[in-house]
Amino acid sequence: MSQSLRNPTEGMVGSSGNFVKIENKGAAMNTFWSRTILNHAIVAMAVMLLLVAPIVGAQTITEIIDGTGDGSGNTLINPTGIAVDGSGNIFVAGNTSHNAFKITPGGAITEIIDASGDNLGNILEIARFVAVDESGNVFVLGNVSNNVFKITPGGVITEIIDTNGDGAGNILMVPREVTVDGSGVVYVTGWGSRNVFKISPGGVVTEIFDDSEHNFMGTWGVAVDGFENVYVTGNYSNNAYKITPGGVVTQIINGGDGLLAPQGIALDGSGNVFVAGKDSYNVFKITPGGVITEIIDVTGDGGGNALSGPEHLAVDNAGNVYVTSSPNSKAFKITPGGVITQIIDASGDGQGHTFSFPEGMAVDKSGNAFVTAWGTDNAFEIQGPMIFKDGFESADTTAWSSSVPAQP
To answer: Cα(157)–Cα(395) distance, rounded to whole angstroms?
Structure first.
């Protein structure tokens, strides 16, 4: 700093444009500049914090459907499966009410299928699971009626598979889960028949896996990646398999890894597979290279909220895993970094709508989770927590896609 600036004789123009009269030469000028620099530094730091540090909003839980169903006499009893499409429409299967409902983002509820099935004699009994494709076609599985129905956005209902299976002697008995890939190909597991079927958009049914050459019992969960690799769990054989489009079958996890009675299975965008062990009270991650890691166990979040009997999984494109904990009426979120959070418990939304024995789990493109409660005849949306940054609101996850890329 020059001598003239350290010891001014008359005055100077301040940062606000006002002329500053200097009476006590050096000391007064030093005080002025110290305060000015300090004030500017405080303002700059505050602006930086607002721009860089996100403000996290509170998580909100909302009951989206209850036992009254559509409110027009079509009730919802013991809901199990749940799915959400790219437009935010939610689909819920009523296990004991033998039906399925559509819930729009605006909250309008419509029954899209009931026990009469396709009204051609093919009934729907115990609507256990539901899936939706990129065109808005919904697929509802009849656990006791041994079939799957397709419902178009226009309401046309078609039975796409029944007890006859592929019609070549490979039957379908007690189907458990249904899923659909980005091309509209449907996959169904047969728990009683110990097999898996593939149904093309044109209606061609093919058995792609059975227990004839593999230790595979109690076929349960099913998932498919963007390369048409199919992943299934064996509930009684304590394992999971990968089936390539060419028919190559590989066991990817078994009881020796600490897995008991697996049910739910899901994938992330990097080709990692997640399997829920209902009786081992845990969830495993299996990388494309075959590395197996337990990402949650009976201790749950480690803060007193235990994981009990996990059944169903969902994964968003940020790699967050969502899992139900049925016997103790909870659900958890596990981040890719291993942070575990309880996202709902028996209190439900905290407004008197309770939550008991969760079943199905789904997640939308904004990172909102959806879960059905078998015991309380309802379903909830768990939104957020939201992050407010640069004046905008966004979820703490990336965009969702119904087809999951993975390793071929």
So the answer is: 35
Query: Which of these, 184, 182, 120, 172, lies nearest to 148 by C-alpha position?
Result: 172
Look up residue 156 and give its amino acid.
Answer: V
Prediction pTM value:
0.83
CA separation for the pair 115, 35 (Å, rounded): 77
For residues 141 and 127, the answer to whether their CB atoms sit within 8 Å is yes
* CATH class of segment(s) 61-382: mainly beta
By residue count, the chain amounts to: 408
Taking only the tens of pLDDT, the chain with its 408 residues reads 444 333 333 333 343 344 333 344 444 444 444 455 445 544 444 434 334 444 445 799 999 999 999 999 999 999 999 999 999 999 999 999 999 999 999 999 999 999 999 999 999 999 999 999 999 999 999 999 999 999 999 999 999 999 999 999 999 999 999 999 999 999 999 999 999 999 999 999 999 999 988 999 999 999 999 999 999 999 999 999 999 999 999 999 999 999 999 999 999 999 999 999 999 999 999 999 999 999 999 999 999 999 999 999 999 989 999 999 999 999 999 999 999 999 999 999 999 999 999 999 999 999 999 999 999 999 999 997 644 333 333 333 323 333 333 444
The amino acid at 329: S
